[in-house]
């Protein structure tokens, strides 16, 4: 709302100045030239001063305008005077677009597109209504000087996570158009990962991929990526979940979407996507995690899909959930359920969350299945003595290349590891590294997933990974 009002007031000031100048021109034509010239100079000075004031006014409200742009669009949707207004596209904080155009396919690192270090802001929303919290409190956060000051103190962190988000957006924009049935899953992962590495400007543990590319198909909901030698092919009738992450200095974007080619799966995918949006909308500072889960379940179970003459209710997969995200830590301790019940713990300021929902036509519960490909060093594990030299060498390689970020067997081989099976098993047996096998519902069912990373800023909620696609 503030952005619309400000623009209208500025236009009125300029029109008034223009009318005053027309009056001056009329006076000059009536023969009183000398007084008019003096008066005209005064008017020009006044017009310049007014214009300067207008520019300053725009600068003062620019940040606030951008922060509430999504709310402005939602509220103006029912206003007849504002029907022609369109939702603003992502901009960097300075209000300027990229300094150069991205290639097709994308090859230019995001840092080169935004050399001033101001990366596009995500979608700005109010914090969701919290149990026992006055609704006006969330609205007041937008204009609170104290909250805005806290926002400014975190700008370095915000820019790092926005940098990672832009790399994710451009990578998935390319890969969504590029993927076709008939491609192997390894081919798909290698194209996605090479694109993301270029755009993020891979630099050891400072910048790169946050975890292996998930490309789980059909009844497999999560944690599948092909190992070397896997010849699996993507087929027309598959429902595939593309889940990948990027990071800058450990600030992780965790974002996923579902691809399908057969339109019969549209209701399933739509139900899960709308459930994700419900989870995002209900999230916010002081919101209880269990309330987010209840909102997700209500929306998801309102959808159904007909497959081969049988109608299935879209069920949330109750033993999968979203989670908080910390620096170099994809699961930072808090879980965001996708069904009612669960923790009454509240969300807090400056926390990052992956709002992640899974829907299924099966039982709505997953179990470990198939060959393991995902691994991650135990974040909390203390020093463990290792007897095998091969285990020590592999752990050194993991520490150097991945730290506490997740990795897969293909990535170990890319980093130079060979004949590592026994060493990797030894590290898992000792609890230094944890395996994360593929998670599957019953065979023959179909699962879908959508996910966004959100940041609970003091002033607002920012859906950092939001793009034009979803």
UniProtKB/TrEMBL annotation:
Keywords: Aminopeptidase, Cytoplasm, Hydrolase, Metal-binding, Protease. It is found in: Cytoplasm. It comes from the Eukaryota. It holds the Pfam family Peptidase_M24. CDD domains: MetAP2 (cd01088). A divalent metal cation 2 binds at residues 254, 323, 356, 451. One of its GO terms (cellular component) is cytoplasm. Residues 36-47, 84-94 have a biased composition (Basic residues). A divalent metal cation 1 binds at residues 243, 254, 451. Residues 15-28 have a biased composition (Acidic residues). Binds 2 divalent metal cations per subunit. Has a high-affinity and a low affinity metal-binding site. The true nature of the physiological cofactor is under debate. The enzyme is active with cobalt, zinc, manganese or divalent iron ions. Most likely, methionine aminopeptidases function as mononuclear Fe(2+)-metalloproteases under physiological conditions, and the catalytically relevant metal-binding site has been assigned to the histidine-containing high-affinity site. The keyword Nuclease does not apply. Residues 160-357 form the Peptidase M24 domain. One of its GO terms (molecular function) is metal ion binding. Belongs to the peptidase M24A family. Methionine aminopeptidase eukaryotic type 2 subfamily. Cotranslationally removes the N-terminal methionine from nascent proteins. The N-terminal methionine is often cleaved when the second residue in the primary sequence is small and uncharged (Met-Ala-, Cys, Gly, Pro, Ser, Thr, or Val). This is Methionine aminopeptidase 2. It comes from Galleria mellonella (Greater wax moth). The gene is LOC113511968.
